[in-house]
Amino acid sequence: MSYCKSCGSTIGDFDSVCSTCGSHIPNAEFKQPTQIRTSQPLVSDSSPAVSSWGFVGATLLLGIPAVGFLVAIVWAFGAVKNPNLRNFARAYLLLFALFVSIALGFVLMALARFGSVLYALNHLIGLFR
Prior knowledge:
This protein is mainly α. It has four helices and two strands; from the N terminus they run ββαααα.
C-alpha cells in the first residue's frame, strides 16, 4: 500500500488517481495479473459436444447389464475419441464400483450378524416361513 502525497490517504496498487482528492499518482504500478499457462487448451474445438439424444443412447447402452459394463470399460480406457463419452463411461464405472462396494458391505454385515445371508433374509423378512 502506498499513500497519496497530496492528502495522505491510502492508495491501492493499481490506482492511478487518488480516490479522495483526485490527484494524479505519478509512479502508479500497473501490474498485469499473472495467467496460468497450460500446455493444452481447456476446451478442445476438435471434440464435438454430444447431443442430448447421444447421452440418452449412451445411457441406454451402458444400462444393458453385461454389455454395458464391457462397453464402459472400453470407452473409459480410450477407445472412443470424444472426451465427453470417455468421462461419462468413467463416471459410470466409478458409480458401479461404489454400488458394488455398498452391496458387498451389506452382505458382509449380514454374514457377521447372522452367520448366513439366507438366515438373515429369513430373519429380517420371513422369506422361508
